[in-house]
Structures are given as structure tokens and as C-alpha cells.
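Design job #97: recover the sequence.
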């Protein structure tokens, strides 16, 4: 087994630990290796990174923006689940990224709320 294959196997194990289903048809491949996260989970991770960066730069989103960012991924999943329209990996990546940004702001505002609550005690 080559060093690249060992790294790939460890990456796939880590993706599984994170809770990704890792379906090959719903994952990107690079240089013949399946990405350790499906397209949607890749998008969520990317969105969370973008959300952290934007928060660090002082950007604050309002709830009327955050909720649709999260909902859009659920809507895409639901449309696919009902077999109204099949999704593709690019759309999964985009909707996952939007959801990841929204989730990060939910975490951020939740942490701020708890800190303020503790400060009152």
C-alpha cells in the first residue's frame, strides 16, 4: 500500500467519523481518489470556514438572512427526496455551503447568548 493510499484511507475514516455517508456518486473525486466527504458535507464544511472568516472580519448577518441560508439545503434535499427533481453535486455543494454559513452564525449567536447569560449571574 502506498503512502497516498494510506492517507486516503485515513481521510475516509475521518469523513465517516464526521457522519458523512460518503456515497461515491454524491462525492467529488480528485486524481482517482474519492473525496472523504460527500458534496453536501464538503459544502457545509466550506461554509462553516467562510462563516468563521466573515465573523472574524466583523460581518454580522441578521436572522432573516440566516434562516433561508439554512433552509435552502433542506429544501434541496426535500425536493430530491420527493423525486421532484434530482440534485447534482454542484447544487449540493452550493446549498451545503450556504447552510454551513448559516449554521456558523447560529453557533456564534448561540455562544454570544450563553456568554451574556453567564455574565448576568
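Job complete. Output follows.
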Amino acid at each position: 500500500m502506498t503512502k497516498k493510499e494510506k492517507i486516503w484511507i485515513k481521510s475516509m475514516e475521518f469523513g465517516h467519523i464526521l457522519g458523512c455517508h460518503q456515497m461515491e456518486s454524491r462525492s467529488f473525486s480528485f486524481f482517482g481518489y474519492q473525496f472523504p466527504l460527500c458534496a453536501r458535507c464538503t459544502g457545509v464544511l466550506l461554509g462553516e470556514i467562510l462563516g468563521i472568516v466573515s465573523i472574524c472580519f466583523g460581518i454580522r448577518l441578521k436572522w432573516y438572512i440566516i434562516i433561508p441560508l439554512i433552509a435552502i439545503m433542506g429544501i434541496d434535499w426535500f425536493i430530491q427526496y420527493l423525486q421532484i427533481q434530482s440534485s447534482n453535486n454542484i447544487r449540493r455543494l452550493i446549498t451545503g455551503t450556504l447552510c454551513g454559513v448559516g449554521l456558523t452564525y447560529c453557533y456564534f449567536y448561540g455562544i454570544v447568548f450563553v456568554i451574556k447569560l453567564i455574565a448576568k449571574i
